[in-house]
Amino acid sequence: MDYQQFVINAFEMRRGKWRARISRRDGTPLAVKGRKLARECVTGSDDKTAADALLVAMDMIDWGTISSAAGIVPIEPLWRKTSG
């Protein structure tokens, strides 16, 4: 599912143990608090249903636990900058 600028997919780790994988729609790295930059992040809790795992992932995004990669500057401001 698409949520904000992220893609979230639920998957079953083991029977009855669901988690969600989060990545950015454009493929740029994620900045996850307390971790290195990564292409994707997997929720850390085992949930009973796929829907619960998706809700945990959405909460992580809403709370700011996952954001755009720190230090990556959008290209647009560079070409719009004028010398003076």
N to C succession of SSEs: EEEEEHEH
Q: What is the approximate shape?
A: globular
The largest sheet has its strands arranged as 1-2-3-5
Q: Distance N terminus to C terminus? A: 46 Å
Q: Nutshell version of this structure?
A:
The protein has 84 residues and is α+β, with helices and mostly antiparallel strands. Helices cover 21% and strands 33% of the residues.
List strands and helices in order, with pairings.
Blueprint: E1 2-3, E2 6-14, E3 17-24, E4 30-32, E5 40-42, H1 50-62, E6 66-68, H2 76-80
Antiparallel strand pairs: 1-2, 2-3, 3-5, 4-6
Explain what this protein looks like in three dimensions.
The chain has 84 residues and is of the alpha+beta class. Helix content is 21%, strand content 33%. The protein is built from 2 helices and 6 strands. It has a 4-stranded antiparallel beta sheet with strand order 1-2-3-5, covered by helices on one side. β1 (2-3) and β2 form a beta hairpin. It is globular and about 30 Å long. 19% of the residues are buried. The model is unreliable at 70-82 (pLDDT under 50).
Write out key terms for the chains shown.
disordered C terminus; two-stranded antiparallel ribbon; alpha+beta; 4-stranded antiparallel β-sheet; 84 residues; 2 helices; 21% helix
